[in-house]
Amino acid sequence: MADVSRKEFFDRIDGTPQKRMFLSIMADYDLPTAICELVDNAIDHWMSTGKPSGTIIRLFLDTERQLIAVRDNAGGVPVDQLRLLIAPGATRPLDAENLIGNFGVGGKRASVALGEHVVISSRNKQRDSFQIEITRDWLADEDWKIDVNQIPNIDPNTTNVRISEVRQNFTQTDLDDLYQHLEATYAVFIQQGCELHLNGRPVGVTVYDNWAFPPDYSPKQMAFEIRPSDSDSRSLKVKVTGGLIRDRIPEADNYGVYFYCNGRLILRELKTREVGYFITAEAGVPHPDGSLCRVIVELDGPAELMPWNSSKNGISFSHPAFLQVRPSIIELVTYFSELSRRFKGDRQGHVYQHDAGTVEPMSPTPSTTKKRLVLPPVKRDPKLSYSQRMLQLN
Ligand SMILES: Nc1ncnc2c1ncn2[C@@H]1O[C@H](COP(=O)(O)OP(=O)(O)OP(=O)(O)O)[C@@H](O)[C@H]1O
Ligand SMILES: [Mg+2]
Question: From its phi and psi, is residue 193 left (phi > 0), alpha (psi between -120 and 50) or beta?
Fold first, then answer.
């Protein structure tokens, strides 16, 4: 039998992806998740240009005509970077800031997941305006090249993603849900001055640190740093805050664990084994008696080190960054679930009436995990020098 390991048996093979990959990578998008990918991109641009005031991200979702548009005036995409909007894996060259985008796939797959016809127009600063169109034909053809057309000028600094022939119809109820989802997901950025509008209505903020401060049982916070990767010396800043809440809504089940990564809410009201429910006697099975317990996890640092999934709507529980934080989460879930149960007889007297106080610092719970993240040595676009960055910003 021939030795198939001999090199001459093999030719170099072509690893160019097929367009079908769009079908697989867009498979599990719902409306809020997909819309948020486009909002994330505008927010990232706003953050990486120093959070200028006057930035507005406008979402238009027309239930009658089933059209979607996401427009921002965060800066626009320079013509020589338009490929970032279409090439899977292509992402911004800057990697210093604590941003949301990291995988280089979000915007592309979300827009293709939303509809069969996507038109992206962008005008960087006061320069010319350009447009690319993702059509059914382009998705069916194996040629990855795409036409860039110059168009009459749109507003300066603007990117506009318009989607038609939507794959899943949406109703007014979907829009009401989306509005609430946006209020919670982007509260931090809206508070910092980035405006977000849905069909002309400014999106408000929903925050979850509505703590009660019962005497001797004030909320507790563990603040520490972790280094989840052996091959990356950078670290993530972690804050795990737990306490009893004053905003319990029985029918909403609004308790459990909440995760923010770089300010963006990723997951809320988690009540699973991974965060201590079912495995400690005190947290037990999620139950209304324990529903005053809330734990908020905030991670800040390089996007590459975050334990989020690639569509930013879940946490990867096997990720070393999560595993290193997990014992602290479980400790606070356990403690405040038990406390919640103890106070269930008189929530007003024991809990709700104590509406002011301070959050107490506490040492993190030691982590025994030895698992480390191995980051693949994937080439990113080169990091720009300081002077190049300044040129781009000005
Ligand atoms: N509205 C926008 N304004 C400016 N630049 C944008 C905008 N949308 C996309 N971009 C550019 O396109 C790049 C690719 O976006 P995409 O969402 O596909 O990937 P990403 O944000 O880098 O990573 P992720 O997959 O985690 O979202 C971004 O990094 C950014 O440079
Ligand atoms: Mg993105």
Answer: left
Strands (E), 328-390: 360-361
- Determine, yes or no, domain membership for 15: no
Contact yes or no for 292/343 (Cβ under 8 A): yes
Ligand nearest to the CA of 107: 1
Residue 6 lies in a domain: no
Reported as half-sphere exposure (CB side, CA atoms, 13 A), residue 214 has a value of 18
Distance 37 CA to ligand 2 centre (A): 5
What is the CB neighbour count within 10 angstroms for residue 189?
25
Q: How far apart are CA 221 and CA 241, in angstroms?
A: 4
DSSP for residue 336: H
Asked if 145 and 82 count as a contact pair (C-beta separation under 8 A), the reply is no
Judge whether 81 and 392 are in contact, CB under 8 Å: no
Cα separation, 127 vs 116, in Å, equals: 29
Amino acid identity at 367: S
Q: Are residues 289 and 173 in the same domain?
A: no
Q: Would the CB of 41 count as within 6 Å of ligand 1?
A: yes
Residues 224 and 197 in one domain: no
Closest C-alpha residue for ligand 1 atom 2? 42
Going by C-beta distance under 8 Å and a sequence separation of 6 or more, which residues neighbour residue 50? 393
**Which residues form the domain of 341?**
220-361
Q: Does the beta carbon of 84 lie inside 6 Å of ligand 1?
A: yes
Residue 101 token pair: 């985008």
| Residue position matching structure tokens 């809330």 | 294
Within-domain flag for 69: yes
Rounded average pLDDT per 10-residue block, the chain, 394 residues: 55 85 78 97 94 96 98 96 92 77 91 96 98 95 94 98 96 98 98 98 98 97 94 93 97 96 98 95 92 98 94 96 97 97 96 97 87 64 48 46
- Where do we find the tokens 């190049």? 388
